[in-house]
Amino acid sequence: MRLNRFDPRNIRVGTTSGGGGGFPGGGGGKAGCGTIVIVLIAALVFGVDPAQMLGGMDQGTAPQTQQQDGAQDAETLCNSNSYALETCNALASLNQTWEPVFRQAGVPFEDPILRFPASNNFSTGCGNGSVGMGPFYCPGDQTIYIDTGFYDQLGRMAGRGGDFARYYVVAHEYGHHIQKLTGVAAAIRSAQSQNPRAANQLQVRMELQADCYAGVWAGKNRNLIEPGDLEEGMRAASAIGDDALQRSAGQRINPEGFTHGTSEQRMEALQLGLNARDDSVCDRYVQMR
């Protein structure tokens, strides 16, 4: 995928090792409704108390104890290795793609922070993190945490890597940031607390919506897609399906233990967003049927 080089002034990064949904193993839509309306719709969808949600929208948001870094820090970090540069290029593209969607809808937008952990264990706005968790988004500090070493692991899992597979990882985590901004994440967390038995099912819905959002980003930038990119993305989505991960671990396929969706579901969600190029199609994943 032919992404432009990032502008260090247009992305936010973090340099310290200290301090959502994560990756296992390592236009339209609700944004057009406005955040408050989104919360009310989500309350109806998941059967939660709107007053409780509106009162708790900012719960879990930790104070920013880390100093925000400047352009020079972004330049240094993003050029630390080729994977870091790809990640920063992807983040810049995601910001440029999603900010106009929110602006047109009149919904407040703030781009996420990107951090490359400098140690195996680190603190985040969501508690302690570790490299073994794989890439993840923390809504508490609105930060995407990525250890670039995961990309090699992803390449082994998918049988072959490719830049689009790595961009898909970043775009998926960015999808969780969108869910934070629109209130969908808060709605799902509230629904999970009220119905713990459905927690995994609700988590799967949120993860598939993030996959769909990743596809929307790719679809909106389809002119930059090169031959073989889509196949790379589909192989990555297939490799990280819950059923594939359980099978590769020698475990029995257990749908009750799914947290991200099957390989088929993840490929379908990515393809849906890519074909539609419209975030409203991704709403289906957080609507009860």
UniProtKB/TrEMBL annotation:
<keyword id="KW-1133">Transmembrane helix</keyword>
<protein>
    <submittedName>
        <fullName>Neutral zinc metallopeptidase</fullName>
    </submittedName>
</protein>
<keyword id="KW-0472">Membrane</keyword>
<dbReference type="InterPro" id="IPR007343">
    <property type="entry name" value="Uncharacterised_pept_Zn_put"/>
</dbReference>
<dbReference type="Pfam" id="PF04228">
    <property type="entry name" value="Zn_peptidase"/>
</dbReference>
<keyword id="KW-0812">Transmembrane</keyword>
<feature type="region of interest" description="Disordered">
    <location>
        <begin position="1"/>
        <end position="25"/>
    </location>
</feature>
<feature type="compositionally biased region" description="Basic and acidic residues">
    <location>
        <begin position="1"/>
        <end position="10"/>
    </location>
</feature>
<feature type="compositionally biased region" description="Gly residues">
    <location>
        <begin position="16"/>
        <end position="25"/>
    </location>
</feature>
